[in-house]
Design goal:
- It is a single chain.
- A hairpin with a 2-residue loop joins strand 1 and strand 2.
- Helices cover about 60% and strands about 15% of the residues.
- It is flat and about 40 Å long.
- By secondary structure, it is of the alpha+beta class.
- The chain has a two-stranded antiparallel sheet with strand order 1-2.
- About 0% of the residues are buried.
Length: about 70
């Protein structure tokens, strides 16, 4: 049952990706992310706002994972 759910989510993700690539309207998009190499975070983004949002999300995820790990 769990394998079926996993494969279904993968297929839905692939379908959404293909449909977004086929869209006629080209919209300018922004991206950002965080790469953690040990304790050193490397934050990147296409705009400063996206880099800041990625940094805030990374901090939130680190706090949540620390809180759950200490239990």
């Amino acid at each position: 049952m769990l394998r079926l759910i996993g494969w279904s989510l993968i297929m839905i993700g692939i379908l959404i990706t293909i449909l977004s690539l086929l869209s006629i309207d080209r919209v300018e998009s922004e991206f950002g992310g965080v790469l953690l190499i040990g304790p050193i975070p490397i934050v990147f983004g296409s705009t400063p706002g996206m880099a800041f949002a990625a940094m805030l999300l990374a901090i939130a995820l680190m706090l949540i994972s620390t809180a759950l790990w200490r239990r």
